[in-house]
Here is the input.
Amino acid sequence: MTVKIDLHNHSCLSPCGSDDLTPALLAVEAMEQGIQILALTDHNSARNLPAFAEACELCEIFPLFGIEVNTIEDVHVLVLFAKLEDAMEFGSFIEFLLPPINNDPHLFGNQHIVNLEGEVTGKVEKLLISTSGISFNDVIEEGLSRDALVIPAHIDRSANSALSNLGFLPDLPYSALEAIRLPVASDTHGKTILTGSDAHYLQHVGRRACYLEMEELSYSGLKQALESGKVTYRR
Here is the structure.
């Protein structure tokens, strides 16, 4: 079956994201666009994933619980979990590795933790767009050791990407790769290339969703589909 997926989205927890983009509104907008597998991937934190889990259940969307990790090299990597508790544990690990620099909302934006109704229940003090204390190679290894999907983000972007910051894409056992434009002018080592919305505002949700051929709508089915590489990018 053909499944519409979008594995890269932010919420009001990311300081560069809109305060209006709550986890619930992300799920509702994705549902209206027919997205069947959806990930929330805030920068270096998992704090809004519990509300996202509730929203996806109500919207009958298959959720992936993610974090967009910013490595020591300033490269962004999506780490995606099937289980909420595993993502929360990993998120705490990544937050611990962030430098002791506090967010200035006037400079960078708010870092709101919200509930299902979008009510602010707290905020993260550490600046979430800092580089964390983990290298590109180590976040790949760490994520895979925790049975997560590990996907270098927007590898063809001019900043915060493997190609721009490392100068090349190391040959590592990624679950897949994410690109903005296709084809990618680099050796991608035969990995499946996905497109993701990287939504920071509600109107961005679904803008670069893609389609996978899957045997079943499950985490194992997604893994198998990424290995087979049967992806299309039509809208």
In short: The mean pLDDT is 97. The chain has one domain: 2-232.
